Amino acid sequence: xxxxxxxxxxxxxxxxxxxxxxxxxxxxxxxxxxxxxxxxxxxxxxxxxxxxxxxxxxxxxxxxxxxxxxxxxxxxxxxxxxxxxxxxxxxxxxxxxxxxxxxxxxxxxxxxxxxxxxxxxxxxxxxxxx
Length: 130
Known about the structure:
The chain is an all-alpha fold. It is built from 4 helices and no strands.
């Protein structure tokens, strides 16, 4: 792939991470400030996701500045989100206060970060191939 296309993938990955971070911060902050999302809120998950909005922003900036470090950031976020997804699935199945909407949203976050990790990993390999 041409260096120009590789650079476009880097820009897209960084932009997706930053936009995702802003959206996560906006949505989480609204609910923390009292907006009703229309479903039962599992407060520990809400706090985790809102805090991760800041981490998503930082990861996006990292991807933009340093693909190698960005790969580690995206991989760590994916793994953390996967662990939280498994944890809230356990809570949900045991009758805890986790809404199906929360499971769907966490699944979506996890898949997005898996794809970002794969994209940034590919970027790292593409830059080392002559």
